[in-house]
Amino acid sequence: MKPILRGLNHAFEFVAATMMAAMFAIFILQVTIRYSARAEWIADAIPLLEPTLYGWTLDFCLLMWIWIVFWGNGLIVRHRDHVIFDIIYTNASARMRKWFAIFSAIIISICLLLIIEPTWSKFYILRLKKTATLSNVFGDWIRVRDIYLVFFIFTTAVALRYLWRAHYIFKNGAEEDLFLPAEDNLRLPERNTNDL
User: In sequence order, what DSSP letters do the residues of 60-108 get, joined into one string?
Assistant: First the structure.
């Protein structure tokens, strides 16, 4: 099971890295076009660099940013990577800590699952609206709703992850939350005492 989960995690990271690379490439294109637009002779010499052709770059970068944030937080970021305020949690007894963790995981899951339907209802009208500039590049099939579909991937993934966390803590306890896994420990080079 662990190799499958590791493979999935690498696939999710690859998708996020691809989106980041696409966003960066389009950003560089956007900067190039912005500064070449000042010299009109460039657009006359190379019609492909006509600034009016690249209004879509801003929308594309915003789209990629939205997808990177929700994709990464829903499918890549681990529970222990979040900033937490755990003064009470770490000082509670093992039994109390277990129930704190289970309760909070279930509440997070329920809240995220409950917002899916009302959000989808509000997004449903967006199936009719086209994007202002992306349809010039990608065609009419991209609608505004499609841009924000990653939100539903995020809510579903995080809800399922926290339900799994509640199940895992119920079976195994919450003691692992107090320690970093061995893979996160820094590996410092051994110091040679003979070099003194």
Answer: HHHHHHHHHHHHHHHHT--GGGS----HHHHHS-HHHHHHHHHHHHHHH
As a whole number of Å, the CA-based R_g of the chain is: 24
Residue in the block written with tokens 């980041």: 20
Q: Running DSSP on this structure, what letter comes out for residue 179?
A: S
Domain residue extents for the chain: 1-77, 81-179
Q: Cα–Cα distance between 77 and 17 in angstroms, integer?
A: 14
Q: Which of 148, 146, 18, 149 is nearest to 76 (CA)?
A: 18
> Shortest CA distance to 158 belongs to which of 146, 147, 150, 169?
150
Name, in order, each residue with C-beta under 8 angstroms of 73's C-beta and a sequence gap of 6 or more.
Answer: 154, 158
**What tens digit of pLDDT does each residue of 39-74 get?**
777 767 777 777 777 888 888 898 899 999 999 999
Query: CA nearest 103: which of 95, 90, 83?
Result: 95
Q: What is the DSSP string of 97-147?
A: HHHHHHHHHHHHHHHHHHTHHHHHHHHGGGGSPBPSSHHHHH-TT-BHHHH
In DSSP terms, 130 is beta-bridged to 143
The two structure tokens encoding residue 31: 């900067």
- pTM for the predicted model, two decimal places: 0.78
